[in-house]
């Protein structure tokens, strides 16, 4: 994914068909060492293609992917009552902790008194 992102950055920067060296320069600027084999594959696959078309194609593929499962949702719904009670207890504990830490913030010193 980082290679594709760097390729897109290069295209946005004005390069129509970025080369491996262009992508490596972008990646190295953020401390990422490029794998030459993967980089070559990405450049080979993306060169000559419109970025807008690639994004549109990717959106279509993502929209067709299933994102939820009915089987996993059923047990979560069944255990929801127990989880809800535990969540309320956790929220109460968090509020107590926050109020104690607020008292400690000034450590007995008043800045403007």
UniProtKB/TrEMBL annotation:
One of its GO terms (cellular component) is cytosolic large ribosomal subunit. CDD domains: Ribosomal_P2 (cd05833). One of its GO terms (molecular function) is structural constituent of ribosome. Residues 84-99 have a biased composition (Basic and acidic residues). Belongs to the eukaryotic ribosomal protein P1/P2 family. Plays an important role in the elongation step of protein synthesis. This is Large ribosomal subunit protein P2. It comes from Stomoxys calcitrans. The gene is 106093337.
């Amino acid at each position: 994914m980082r290679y594709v992102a760097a390729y897109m950055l290069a295209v946005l920067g004005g390069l129509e068909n970025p080369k491996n060296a262009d992508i490596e320069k972008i990646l190295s600027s953020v401390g990422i060492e490029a794998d030459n084999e993967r980089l070559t594959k990405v450049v080979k696959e993306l060169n000559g293609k419109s970025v807008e078309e690639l994004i549109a194609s990717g959106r279509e593929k993502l929209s067709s992917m299933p994102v939820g499962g009915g089987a996993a949702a059923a047990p979560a719904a069944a255990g929801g009552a127990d989880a809800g009670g535990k969540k309320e207890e956790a929220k109460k504990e968090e509020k107590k902790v926050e109020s104690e830490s607020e008292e400690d913030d000034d450590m007995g010193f008043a800045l403007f008194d």
